[in-house]
């Protein structure tokens, strides 16, 4: 009997590749999915299979796979310059991208430092904030404030400001200890409490912390509006505005982790815009290149940049680097991505798609196995539960979300639940009809997963 192309490649893979965020033993029974090509919203296998990429390949592919403008830009750039180090050298794509980012970023962000991925960007931002205070002679500032349930990456610095035990527990002896404050999201709202009251309570908790600890705090770090890998926990823009005011009052930095929330995901180009605020440092990655190549950037204020600008002998330089910092191919892809946002009504289309998704989700409010249906722009999520009416959840060890994943693959949709949190974060080229299918498959998967 002949072996299919997909099965043959999967077997070769399992002999040599160690996959990210995976217990490899699972693949004794969990199918590996070889992908041959991609186009728009679709991932295509080797044997005629295809799946709607409902999670944008870990939230990177905002404009659809192989967008023709990005592909053309990459082909042109490859004929010119593939790579050169950015220490002592420069090139047009790095300069043009920095100019474009500064022009569309929240006001006051004036400088761009490149990195390779989201976790690396968080490392840069944390180090910049700490080093800034040290350069100013305020070396007692060594701590960071993060939100409960937060996730900012898996390198040691990024993990230090992450509050997800699944990722953090093993490496705790190696990590910094952040101060944690609760955001005003749905799960932490008290019975009878209004959203406004919850925001005020959460900000009062942060105020109390900063009153006691501001002299040792470098920065507050948050994912604006949506804590994505932390369970798609969502909070209102008013909380961001309050954060900005408290950071100003107590003279600490505000770091906005827009790695997952940037480039249109929440309804605006950057989530911070919805609160009318500008952070001191902003990290971007994922959708920056339209999901084609790894690249990240940290934007900072002129004030932060000035604290490092001195004679070399002063010891104030920011000596941080990556070999592929500002890679020309990645920068060119990012320039093309920003040009698409500039030239085409991407955000306007997103509002229409988000409204359609909201209408499709509205009917799930009374589903017996679905709780806390929530949405911010083109990010939507709900919890898979044993009994919504009685507030009963499944034990995490049962891995019911994995059953939803399996069901979705059988019906042409790639979903990747976060535990029992089922979420949708599709490319912006998805159609209303594909949204209908995506949600219908997810709901059928929930019903199948919830069955004993």
TrEMBL record:
Site residues by UniProt (Participates in the substrate recognition with KAPA and in a stacking interaction with the adenine ring of SAM): 21
Residue sites binding pyridoxal 5'-phosphate per the record: 118-119, 257, 322-323
EC number(s) reported in the record: 2.6.1.62
Main location: cytoplasm
GO terms (BP aspect): biotin biosynthetic process
Keywords: Aminotransferase, Biotin biosynthesis, Cytoplasm, Pyridoxal phosphate, S-adenosyl-L-methionine, Transferase
Gene Ontology terms for molecular function: adenosylmethionine-8-amino-7-oxononanoate transaminase activity; pyridoxal phosphate binding
Catalytic reaction(s) noted: (8S)-8-amino-7-oxononanoate + S-adenosyl-L-methionine = S-adenosyl-4-methylsulfanyl-2-oxobutanoate + (7R,8S)-7,8-diammoniononanoate
Location relative to the cell: Cytoplasm
Keyword DNA-binding: no
Positions of modified residues (N6-(pyridoxal phosphate)lysine): 286
Residues that bind substrate: 58, 151, 286, 321, 416
Cofactor: pyridoxal 5'-phosphate
Pathway(s) where this gene product acts: Cofactor biosynthesis; biotin biosynthesis; 7,8-diaminononanoate from 8-amino-7-oxononanoate (SAM route): step 1/1
Entry GO terms, CC: cytoplasm
PANTHER family attached to this UniProt entry: ADENOSYLMETHIONINE-8-AMINO-7-OXONONANOATE AMINOTRANSFERASE
Family: Belongs to the class-III pyridoxal-phosphate-dependent aminotransferase family. BioA subfamily.
Record function comment: Catalyzes the transfer of the alpha-amino group from S-adenosyl-L-methionine (SAM) to 7-keto-8-aminopelargonic acid (KAPA) to form 7,8-diaminopelargonic acid (DAPA). It is the only aminotransferase known to utilize SAM as an amino donor.
Subunit note: Homodimer.
Protein name: Adenosylmethionine-8-amino-7-oxononanoate aminotransferase
UniProt gene name: bioA
